[in-house]
Structures are given as C-alpha cells and as structure tokens.
What we know:
This protein has helices at residues 60-66, 110-113, 237-242, and strands spanning 2-9, 15-22, 28-32, 37-44, 50-52, 73-74, 80-81, 85-88, 91-94, 104-105, 117-122, 125-132, 143-151, 156-165, 169-170, 174-175, 191-194, 196-200, 213-214, 226-227, 246-251, 259-262, 268-274, 278-282, 306-310, 325-326, 332-342. By secondary structure, the protein is mainly beta.
Amino acid sequence: MIVKNAFGTTSKGEAVDVYTIRNSSGAAVDILTYGATVNSIYVADKNGAFADVLSGFDTLEGHEKYSDYQGMTVGRYANRLAGGKFSIDGVEYDVEKNEKDITCLHGGAELSTAVWKAFIVDDNAIEMNYTSPDGAMGFPGKVDFKVTFTLHEDNALKIEYFAVSDKKTVINMTNHAYFNLAGKGDILAHELMINADAYTPVDENSIPTGEIRPVEGTPFDFRVAKPIGRDINEADDQLAIGKGYDHNFCLNDGDGPIATAYDPESGRFLEVFTDLCGVQLYTGNFLDGTNIGKNGNPLIKNAGFCLETQYYPNTPNMPEFPQCTFDAGQKFTSCTVFRFSVK
Ligand code: BGC
C-alpha cells in the first residue's frame, strides 16, 4: 500500500512529497521526492515493536540545513573525484569541488538536492525520475536518472538505479542511508560483516592511493561479524584519516549478502545485497552532535553507519579500478537490496 503526503517546501519554493510504502506486516518506508531520499524505515524488533532504523531528519529544513546526505540518492558520481577532475577521450572535465575546494564529493550534491518526479508503479513500488542537464556541476551529457524503490513482503527494500546519457560520461550512484538498527544511541555495538578480502586505503583527502590492501590482520577485517566499535579506536593510519571507518571495501564475488549488521539488543538484522563491486563503510565519524536530527535529537558521532554500494571512489582517475564510464545511449543499471529481519 502506498500513501502520498505533502512533506514541505524547499527554500527555493518547490513542493516536496513523501511516499509511504507499507507491507502487510506493518513494515514501512518513507521516500521523499527531495533527493529521492529514503527518509525512514520502520521495522519490528524481536518483540514486534517497530522503530525507525534510519537516522536523519524529520523536516525538509533539516535536510536542507544539515544534509550529511542522510538517506539521499547521491550522484552523478557518488564518493570522491580527486581534484574535481577527470578526462574522457582526452577531454578534461572540471567539476564542482564541493569538499574543501579540493575534491568533488557525491557529484556536487546535485542529485541529493534535486526534487525528483515520483510515480507509483505498483502497490509496493515507486519510481523517481530526474533529468540532469548537460554540463550540470561540470559533468558531460544530459542524463536521465531513474530510481525505483520497492518494499517487498519479506521486508526487503530494493533500490534499482538506471541512467542514460546523451554523451559519454561517468556515473556512480548510491544511497546514503545511515542505519541504526536500535533506533537510538550509537551503532558501535552493532555486529557487522562485510564480505571483502581487501579495501582501498586513502590519502589525506580520502582519495584511494591505488593500493588494494588485504584486510587480513587489520581493523578492516569484517569477514567474520564483529562489533563496529571493537577495533575502531586502534592505532591505524587509515582509521586516523577517516576518524573511524570511511573506506571503500572491494567486494568478493558470490551470491550471498555483501554485508550484514545485527543489533544484539533489538535483535534486528540487516542483510545487504548488490551487483556493484564496492561498498563504502562510513560510520558517521564526522557527526558531532551539532546537527539536530529526528525528534530534536542531536546527531552524535557514530549515530548511524552507511553501506554505500558503489564503484570504487575516484575510478575515472584510476585506470586499474573497474570502470564506470558509459557511452552515449549506454544504460547504467544497478540494484541494491536492504533486507530486514530479526534473530
Ligand atoms: C563520505 C564521508 C562524508 C560523508 C558525508 C561519506 O560517503 O565518505 O567522508 O563525510 O559521506 O556525509
């Protein structure tokens, strides 16, 4: 069942709606047309009590003022582009350097701050569309973006991404939800598994150095589930740069979940599936209580964790990484599933 309501008006005067998709067990997701944002996910704990397992904001003003990309669809290029630059067929493109005037982060936030057009496509699915003009944020090509959100009866939220450009261009899309399976406090006791034998260490600007470093024997080894907080304060050059985990993991091949998370207190269990090659684990390290989130609560450090499925960061400048440059007319598609249950 899908219900549409008005959510608010942006500072530019655009009307924003919220679509609530609910399944027969009572699980529900709220999706905003602003940023094609997954604003809330309500799922039951082991005693049947529902809570919102996403941190973020309950007002549009919150999203506009603080952002943090809470729940948003990000692109055109999720994660970072070094120096805000890349080349295609010998032509260099200078894109928005929205992070410290040095890097392009999350595509210059274009997709995250756009108001998308929404269509109900089934009784459990909505489609959001947004067309980005040629040259937006400096990126080549007019690109038609489409994201479909489906809430299944087994409490799986499926997010399907489609994009097609009229010029050769780079595309890397993800969702930036911050999960907190307890619905409160921090996520350090959540037990996380990531099916990755290696990750991409970064320089001081959080750009991959090019090294594919084995996780074996490092705090980055999540192959067997462990509490997120267990090794987060270890003396480690990479944890120091990110003030915690803020890194891309190189996913192993296989059919199972690429990641799982479990909150022992509530019993809530999350499984993540994707067809992409990487995932950014970001543990909300730069949240410091300044931004005020849902119900007026400050967004404290480690209030949520993100599993941003993606091509590796800075791929257009790293020929050795799996590439995400698409020809004119060539379709970009990807799919990520977040499935909730209890243990
Ligand atoms: C980045 C973090 C950044 C955050 C923005 C993540 O994807 O890797 O470094 O602070 O997005 O909220």
